[in-house]
Amino acid sequence: MLAILAYSLTTGLSAFAWNWESFAVLRFVVGLAMGSEWATGTAMTAELWPDRHRGKGAGLMQCGLGMGFFVASLVWLFMSQTGEDAWRYMYLLGVLPGFVTLWMRRGIPESEQWERVNDKRKQTRARKRKGGELSAHEEVLSRFTLVDLFSVPALRRRTLIAVFMSLTTTLGWWGISTWVPPYIGSVAAHAGLPAARWASFAGMAYNVGAIAGYVGLGFLADAYGRKRVTFMFFLMAFLLTPVLFLWTHDIGLLLLVSAVTGFFSLGQYTWMPTWLPELYPTRIRGTAIAFCFNVPRLLAWSGPLVAGTLIARFGGYGHAAVTVGFIYLVGVALTPFLPETNGKRLPEDV
Question: Sign of the CA dihedral 231, 232, 233, 236?
Fold first, then answer.
């Protein structure tokens, strides 16, 4: 709730930025809050849904991201006509998610699984402060969760693999996906069509595919396994990138191809809320998810800069996007090394 309030408020305040420095500071706080909210929401979703339907729950949760992007693209279709302050009006609308916290306070329970572990952790730490003797398991439970995450060899190995897989997805997002609307807008402009309108159409088409992909990966992962489906999404994202940016030239067909590409390139995000919670015990689940999600975000900010440099060097979007698209091969190579967890109970301890 605090995270949602924080990013809603600072998104709204971004509308009043008076220079690029103030804007950057506000967006930085938005990023902090969003990373916090996603990790917490992922852990809660995993702990509240039944084992054999956990992927479906993760997919339905993740599709909210695509729905938000779709609505933003739709609103921008009309808002872009309001003049040079149109972007400020868009950010001002960002305060609306804050109202969701009123419903969350009443309608969403805490995870019983987490509450049990949290109560035991509090009791263990209280006894440790009083000088009481702790068992080996209690010593583990009393540790700072980030230290605990890297103290167990099996968890450390999983974390390193998951971080690089997450980096693949995140860098693909910021280094490729963000360029789809301006790319299709530039194709439209070359054909004598309004660039801003077609960029909005592209954003909507891409995110229609993404919404289907978010939900689809979760349902497919429950049916065919986390490893097989995640591997397929990484591979298809790699193969479809040149189809979108190099080999499709008809403006109408571009929208269709962008939707199919969005299914795999954005839809692959659901592997994280589906698979990550099943790799870690309750005592460090939230920390592990946040680490695997946010460390790549700290690195992937370079994606748009790298892609922008490549666009300038290649003189267009196509070869730049395909070059960045080779990052998907990292995900293809690493996916087989995580354990299959489909249908299993969430680990309580390791």
Answer: positive
Tens-digit pLDDT profile for residues 214-266: 999 999 999 999 999 999 999 999 999 999 999 998 999 999 999 999 999 99
Let me know the angle formed at the C-alpha of 324 by 321 and 328, rounded to the nearest 5 degrees: 115
Contact 224, 80 (CB under 8 A): no
3-class DSSP assignment, residue 143: coil
Helix (H) or strand (E) holding 324: helix 318-325
Q: Among all chains, which residue has been given the structure tokens 């975000």?
A: 297
What's the pTM value of the predicted model, to 2 decimals? Answer: 0.89
Give me 334's structure tokens.
């690493």
pLDDT class of 70 with cuts at 50, 70, 90: confident
Domain assignments of the chain as residue spans, ordered by start: 2-109+143-337, 113-142
Residue 326 contacts residue 199 (beta carbons within 8 Å): no
User: What pLDDT was estimated at residue 73?
Assistant: 77
Q: Which two tokens stand for residue 225?
A: 């396994």
Residue 19 has pLDDT above 60, yes or no: yes
Q: What CATH number belongs to 2-109+143-337?
A: 1.20.1250.20
Model pLDDT, residue 350: 47
Query: What is the pLDDT, as a whole number, of residue 110?
Result: 86
pLDDT value of position 18 = 92
> Could you give the angle at which helices 251-265 and 195-224 cross, rounded to 10 degrees?
40
- For residue 120, CA distances in Å to 116, 142, 149 come to 6, 9, 18
Written as six digits, the tokens of 30 are: 């938005």
- Please say whether the beta carbons of 308 and 316 come within 8 A: no
* pLDDT confidence of residue 134: 86
Instruction: Name the DSSP class of 152.
Output: S
Angle CA 204–227–220, to nearest 5: 50
Neighbours of 61 (CB within 10 A): 22
Long-range contacts at 76-81 (CB < 8 A, ≥ 24 apart): 76/200, 76/203, 77/197, 77/200, 77/201, 77/204, 80/196, 80/200
Of 346, 48, 289, 277, the closest CA to residue 145 belongs to 289
